[in-house]
Fold:
Amino acid sequence: MSPTTTARSLTLFSASGLLLVAGLIVPAGAGQRPKPTEGELLFRDKCAPCHGAKGEGGPGFRKPLTGTQSVAELSQFIHQSMPPGKKTPAPQAAKVAAYIHNAFYSPLAQERNRPARVELSRLTVRQFRNAVADLVGTYHPAVPGEEARGLKGEYFKGRDRDAKARAFERIDPEVRFDFGTEGPKPGEFDPHTFSAVWQGSVLAPDTGEYEFVVQTDHAARLWVNGEKQPLVDAWVKSGSDTEFRSTITLLGGRAYPLRLEFSKASYGVNDDDKKKGKPAPRAFVSLLWKRPKRAMEPIPARCLFPQSVPTTFVVTSPFPPDDRSIGYERGSTVSKEWAEATTAAALETAGYVAENLATLSGVPDDAPDRKARLQTFCRQFVERAFRRPLSKETERTYVDGQFATAPNLETAVKRVVVLTLKSPRFLYREIGSREKDGYLAASQLSFGLWDSLPDPELQRAAATGELMTRAGVVKQAERLANDPRAWNKLHEFLLHWLKVDEVPDLVKSNKRYPGFDAATASDLRTSLELYLESTAGSQSSDFRELMLGKTYFLNGRLAKLYGAKLPPDAPFQPVALDPEERAGVLTHPYLLSRFAYLETSSPIHRGVLVARSMLGRTLRPPPAAFTPLAPSLHPSLTTRQRVALQTKPNACNSCHSMINPLGFSLERFDAIGRLRDRENGKPVDATGSYLSRSGKLVKFAGATDLSRYLASSDESRAAFVEKLFTHLVKQPTLAYSPKTLPSLQQSFADNRYSIRKLMVQIMAATTLPEEKPAPPKGGRKE
Structure:
C-alpha cells in the first residue's frame, strides 16, 4: 500500500487498529500510544463526566456527541456556554473543540464511531402506490409527450354528436364559457339547441383528493380516469342547481383521461317562439377543481392535454405515514398498521384486476385457451412486480400453484395478485444478494428517479447486461432524469427542502392585509410551483438560477396585491417583481408568507429555514416551549427588536446567534412577503450575518446579499447535494463511502451546478461504484 495514502490510512486506523506514523502504516501495538493532546486531557477532565469517555452520552447529557459544527463553531460554543452557566477560556476551548471534532464530529469520525450501512428498506407509501399503478397499467407514459396544452373541443349543431352534426373542433385552453343566448359562434348555431364535447387528459400535480366541479345551467357529465361511470352526472337535471361536484383520488405527476359532455336544449320553446325571434335562454359551462388543500379554480391550460391517455389504477386504501424523523421519507419501519394497509391495498388491486381482467390481459372471456393465456399474463405480472426473471420455483409458487388449486380462473388471478403484492420480493427494495446485478441496478435507478418500477427499456438494459457498467448506468439515468416523472420527484424534493411539502393553511389578518384570502394563498402556491419549474425544472436546471432568479409568476389578483402592473384577469406570467430587493426562491412571496405570523414577519422561522434547509445546520430544539412576544405588549418595538429581546438569555443564544442574523436579513418583507421600508414608524433594519463553518463572519445588507451567499457558498451547495441524495436514495451518504459526498459536490461544480445532472451522478454513484482504471501493462498491481 502506498505510504502517501491519507484519508484511507485514517480509515484503517479507525477500523483495524493501525497507526499512521511518519507516513508509514504500522500495527498499533508496535509502538507506544501517542501522548494525549492537551485537548484530549481537558475533555477527559472537564467534559467526559457529562458526555461520556467516548462521547456516548452520560448523566448530564444523554445524547451522543455528533453534529455538523466546525472546529471554529465548537470552540465559540464551548467558550461561551461550557460548562453550563460558565465560560471556558478561549485557548482551552479551541483545544477541546479540535479534539471533539476529530474524535466525534468529522465525517471520518462519524463513520468510525457509528458506521453507516445501507438499510433494508421497504417501499414508501408513494413508491407502493406508484409501483402498483405501473404494474397494473403496464407502463404507459405518465404524461402525454405533446407540447400542446388544453382540451380538444368538438362542437355540434344539435344534441346528436355525430360526424354530420359536427360544426368545428379546436383546442380550448380552458373550459370556461358563457355562450350567452347565441351559442359558440353567433349565426352558425341554433342558439336553442347545440352540444359540445371536450376530451383529452388532466395532469394531477399533487397526490391526494381532487374535487372536480362542473358549473352549468344545462346538461353536462364528466368522466375522469375511467369510462364506465361519470364522475359528475348532471345529464338529467331537476331544480335550479348550477354547480355539480365529486371527488376522486389521484397520484401526483400523472395524467388521467378526461371527457366533458355538454348539451343545451331549450325546453318549452316552440317553433312559433323561434319564428317570432324570442331569444334563447343563456348557456354557460365551466370546468373547475380543488386541488388538495387549495382553493377552487378553473383547471388551467398547463394541466390539460388534448391527447388522451389510458386509465390509471390508483390504490385508495389508507396507509400510515412513512417515517421522516431523520429528515427524509423512508420505509424503515414495519408496523401492524402498515401490514394491514398493504393487505387492504393488495385485495383492492386484486378486485380491480379481476373486474377488468379481459381488458388488462387481452384475453376474451370465451377464448378457448383462456387458462394458458391468463397464466402467461400472471407470470408477466409477477416478473414485473419482482423486477427480475422468475426462477422455476418462484413461478410454481406464485403462479402455477394458484391456478392448480383455485376453484376458477378469476380466483386464481386474484390469489396471484394478492400473493405477489404481499411478497417481500415486491415490498422490499434491497433484498437478496448485494452482488453486482443488472436487475438490482434497474430497480435502484427507477425507484431513485421515478419512485416506481423499471420500465420496459430499463428491463431490456438489465437483461442485456448494459447496467453492469457505469457508462450504461449513466446512459439510462440520463434518460430517466429527462422524463416528466423525474421532474415530479425533484418537485417533491424542492417542496420538502423548502418545508412546504405539506400544504399549510396560510391565513393572515384581514384587518392588516385586506384582500389576502384563500384564493390568494392558492395563487401564491401556484406562483411558487411555476417558479420552481422555470428554474430547477428548466433545461439547464441551474441551482444558481433557483437561488438568484429575478422574475416571479403573477396573475392579475397577485399583481394587484404586490404592486405589479397587470390586468385584473391576467393569467400567470413572469414579472420582474422588486428586482433590486428580491433574488431567487428565498424571497418568493409564498415562502415569506409561509414563514411569518398572522400579522408580523418571523425572523426566527425564516432564519431556521435558511440554517437547517439551505445551510444544512443542525439546531437543537428550544430548551423550553415559549410563546413569542405579542406586538401589542411592545407596540413601539419593531419585530427585530422584539425577537432580540426574547432570545437574549444565554440558554437561547447558542442557536439564535445563528438563527436571528439570518432571519433579520429578510426583514424588508412583511407577513405576506410584500416589500416595506418602515415598521411601527421606524426604518426597517435588514442587516444580518452568518458565521461560516470555517469561522469567517459574512455580513449581509439584506435579502439579495443572503441569496447571493447561498447561491455561491460551498456550505449551501454541499447541504443541497446531501439533501437531494437522501431524497432520491433514501439512505445516508456515508453508507456508501466517505468520499461519496465530496465527489458529488465536485461533479456538481463540474456540471455548472445542473440539478438534473446531479441527480444522474447521485444515481450512478449509488447504483455502481466508480470503476477503477486498469493497471498499466507490465506494471505492478496494487
In short: The chain has five domains: 1-34, 37-113, 125-139+327-480, 151-305, 494-712. The chain is about 40% helix and 15% strand. Residues 632 and 642 are 11 Å apart (CA to CA). The longest strand covers residues 193-204.
